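Provenance and format

Records in this collection were gathered into a single text stream. Each protein contributes a sequence line and a token line. The two records reproduced below are adjacent in the stream.
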Amino acid sequence: MDARLLDVLVCPLCKGPLVYDKAAQELICNADKLAYPIRDDIPIMWADQARVINAPADGS
């Protein structure tokens, strides 16, 4: 993932910052609890393609 691209990408819903998860190949929006997939080095920034991040089972 290009670092310059990471500097300009924001969440399409809240316009907040994204965190790059290299292992999962996702861009994470902590505010909206969404993970946007990265396929073939291309971020898929459609909300309907994002994975909802569930809170941990223990509530922490």
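Adjacent record:
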Amino acid sequence: MALRRVVVTGLGAITPLGKTVAEYWDGLSRGVSGAAPITRFDASKFKTRFACEVKGYNPDDYFERKEGRKMDLFTQFAIIASDQAIADAGLAEGVDKDRVGVIWGSGIGGLRTFQEECIAFGRGDGTPRFNPFFIPKMIADSSSGNISIKHGFRGPNFVTTSACASSSDSIIAAFNYIRLNMADVVVTGGSEAAITEAGVGGFNAIKAMSERNDAPELASRPYDKERDGFVLGEGAGALILEEYEHAKARGAKIYAELLGGGLSSDAYHITAPDPDGNGVVLVMQNALRDAGIKPSDVDYINTHGTSTPLGDGAEVKAIQKVFGEDAYKLNISSTKSMTGHLLGGAGAIEALASILAIQHNLVPPTINHFTDDPELDSRLNFTFNQAQEREVNIAISNTFGFGGHNTSVVFGKVRD
């Protein structure tokens, strides 16, 4: 059976850099940091007291109060981003909703809801008094379920959970459902809202996050010698994936083509990356093979690039192994330097960054570079500190998660 072609026909975003795709791209292209002191709770006693929050967010701007109280923040973000993408793609009329799916990604789900309910129970007298919306708000698949219910989409519906690779895995799952003729359109992407006491405290406990509290905007610095951990982010990104002929038949605008994807496992450690990058080598090789392209065809890699000492180095080693001399012709950048790390939502907003780089022929920067790391090859173009104009025909988005989950997604300009 011939595999069907898959294109991107709609985008949506709510991020630390802005609450629309246009605002997000403006922040990326200008090299804006989304990091600032935490406002969601009193973080004064925490080792890390800053994060990349969605600025000025008020659920009443998007939901009726009664409706909003039934959803955890990560689901609110999912609905906001997906609504934008659905409107952008013009899916309101003229599509067979039996053939439209929703495949979403979240690494944690309703952490705020879980935390609040457990604290309330612990402060009580032991009598079990729980909110009837506790479980529906907490479970990760409430995001895809709510999107489906709101729009009446009756196709495949589920959530992928693979830590920080979750939303990249949701994109590949959606891609496969369409090219195998199990759906014509899929709303996909991911969301996360883990800036809570439990989220920050938990990541502090494993020494994963930056503690540069005196200068939050300078804290996320992938590939810099002085990097000291990631900065936690929140938000959502959404893509409408659609079968190519279906999109053409209804006159949809097409942002890019999804050419292929790769999956692999480090099979090494629950939190640490394989220092030699073997799993990352394998995932990029798999992605290139699936897309039917050569290393020399790739113009830009939006790296996982979390700003951790071990992870950044392992990914760079892997890129050099896979691309050889062609690695020096690439642009490489980590947009986490601006957005922070959205965990399960990271792959979605970074897929958007890759698609927009193709659209605008502009590579967003890796900001906050001050000191070269002698362990990293300085001949590589990390797109430090300023965006760079270049023809971007093919871009790869890499995301890796705790547990050794590796995912690479390949986007390209649409081929006739």
